[in-house]
Amino acid sequence: MNDDLTATTRSFSPTRRQALGLGLSLVGAAALNLLPGFDLLAEADAAIPEAAQKIADHFSSVKTMTGEFVQFGPKGEQTGGKFFLERPGKIRFNYDGAARFQVVSDGQSVVILNKKMNTSDLYPLSKTPLKLLLDERIDLSGNKVQSVKQEEDLTTIQLADKSVFGNSKITMMFDPKSYELRQWTITDAQGKDTTVMIFNTKEGVNFAADTFKIDYTANRELNTKQR
């Protein structure tokens, strides 16, 4: 990631609507248009390429990870910050900027916090495509795999579960040599994309016990007052 891009994202403070856009895309042109040439799997039981399965197995073995991220919204808006991931089900994004946005999943729910505006929006993790990224095991069986594309410098795997997430889907991109995750794109039901690129990552890290904690009482009280 070049220094100019990093500096740009760190100086950008997301609005609540932009951060909420990430949350809604978890529960933008469609990914298939942005990534032409997808090898669509015609049948649910179509054979998964061995290389793709190895990548999925490797990423499933990564139990903890931290690093920096750049997020691109449906209209090209950019935000950035630091992220923390712990499998299964836990992730936290600390956005740069005065608003002090946070997106936190504790394995059960996803909360979007704007500490400056004192807002808290809560969603069930099980109803978001992000769950497919954070599962104990990246499952390429059955009909979850929408497409796999193998290139010399990138392997792209797209997952969806229409019965749970409707038309939403997640597209993950990996380095075919190191098997490392480079970025993911969540496409919402309206076909709008939110892309997260990660860099300066470190695996096998330990986190404080409250890193992924959601204060449900505070969330309930805050939203009760605002009604």
Q: Uncertain runs with pLDDT below 50, 5 residues or more?
A: 1-21, 27-45
Q: What portion of residues is helical? A: 10-25%
Q: Termini, distance in Å?
A: 43 Å
Strand order of the largest sheet: 1-8-9-10-11-12-2-3-4-5-6-7
Question: What is the H/E order?
Answer: HHHEHEEEEEEHEEHEEEH
Query: How many strand elements?
Result: 12
* Overall SS class: alpha+beta
Strand content: 25-35%
Radius of gyration: 17 Å
For the sheet with most strands, the description reads: 12 strands, antiparallel
Choose one word for the global shape.
Answer: globular
Q: Helical segment tally? A: 7
**Average pLDDT across residues?**
80
Describe it.
This protein has a twelve-stranded antiparallel beta sheet. The protein has 227 residues and is of the alpha+beta class. The chain is globular. Helices cover 24% and strands 35% of the residues. The N and C termini lie far apart (43 Å). The protein has helices spanning 3-10, 16-26, 31-34, 50-61, 130-134, 162-165, 216-225; strands at 39-40, 64-72, 78-86, 90-95, 101-106, 109-114, 119-124, 145-150, 155-159, 169-174, 181-187, 193-203.
Task: Provide the descriptors you would attach to this structure in a database record.
227 residues, alpha+beta, 7 helices, 12 strands, 24% helix, disordered N terminus
